[in-house]
Amino acid sequence: MSKEPVYIPRHIDAPFQFLFWQFDEILPVIVAAMFGVLLHQQLICFAIGLVIMNRWTKYRDNHPDGYALHALYWTGIVPLSLVGKKSHLIPEALDREFLP
18 has which bridge partners? Predict the structure, then answer.
């Protein structure tokens, strides 16, 4: 047997970590930094990415799991067929009135 320590995650569905942050927190900063390089405005875009990360973290921590996907579905931005949950029992989000 190897004497090297083996990493055992605490939770099976633990999100991917990048240094101190979860992947969905650091992604806006990375994308904003890339746009900053393209636009030659690295500092401004990096600051915008940090603000978006801060707002997203507060939003995510104050709502239950899956709420962001629910909000996108309810507004009609993301239909369930794109998420892989096609169902005949669940109507499309923008169908608000039903006639017999």
Answer: 21
Q: What contacts 92, CB < 8 A, 6 or more positions away?
A: 76, 79, 80
pTM (predicted TM-score): 0.62
Residue 40's pLDDT band (cuts 50, 70, 90): very high
Q: How many CB atoms lie within 10 A of CB 92?
A: 11
Alpha-carbon distance of 92 to 55, in angstroms, equals 29
What gap in Å lies between CA 63 and CA 85, rounded to an integer?
Answer: 22
Q: In this structure, which amino acid lies at residue 40?
A: H
How many Cα atoms are found within 13 Å in the side-chain-facing hemisphere of 28?
13
Q: Is the predicted pLDDT of residue 85 greater than 80, yes or no?
A: no
